[in-house]
Amino acid sequence: MRVLIKIGSALISRRHRIDYRWLKGKVREIAALAHAGEQVALVTSGAVAAGMEIRGLSERPRQTLELQLLSGMGQIKLMKCYKDLFKRHGIQVAQVLLTHHNFSTQSE
């Protein structure tokens, strides 16, 4: 079976910081599914919160450019976190980058 898991910003972060304790538990649960033979895809938010953590910000900016900067910085941190947590369970991770083209054409 294929399982799609979505972890939104409200779940992954507390007070504009990544909740690593919570995330560690979720990764353990997802790893158990994978080891049981399930095909798992994880969709996650949290890049802005991770970027805010890097920059030491306590309030979420409102300007789009600042949010994009934080997201870009935070995405690297977030993926490293997932990589490290899943590695403990013998699972490699990959990031899939999508464009508008992925959603505007039919897959073959």
Write structural notes for this entry.
This protein is of the alpha+beta class and 108 residues long. The protein has one domain: 3-Layer(aba) Sandwich (Carbamate kinase), CATH 3.40.1160.10. Helices cover 54% and strands 15% of the residues. The protein has helices spanning 9-12, 20-35, 47-55, 64-87, 100-104; strands spanning 2-7, 13-14, 17-18, 39-44. The strands form two sheets. The chain has a two-stranded parallel sheet. Helix 3 packs across helix 4. It is globular, with a radius of gyration of 15 Å. The mean pLDDT is 93.
Rounded mean pLDDT is 93
Count of discrete domains: 1
Strand ordering within the main sheet: 1-4
- Per CATH, the class reads Alpha Beta
CATH superfamily: Acetylglutamate kinase-like
Amount of helix: 40-55%
Strand content: 5-15%
Query: Per the principal axes of the C-alpha atoms, what is the gross shape?
Result: globular
CATH architecture: 3-Layer(aba) Sandwich
**What is the structural class?**
alpha+beta
Order of helices and strands: EHEEHEHHH
What distance separates the N and C termini? 21 Å
Could you tell me the CATH topology label.
Carbamate kinase
Largest sheet: 2 strands, parallel
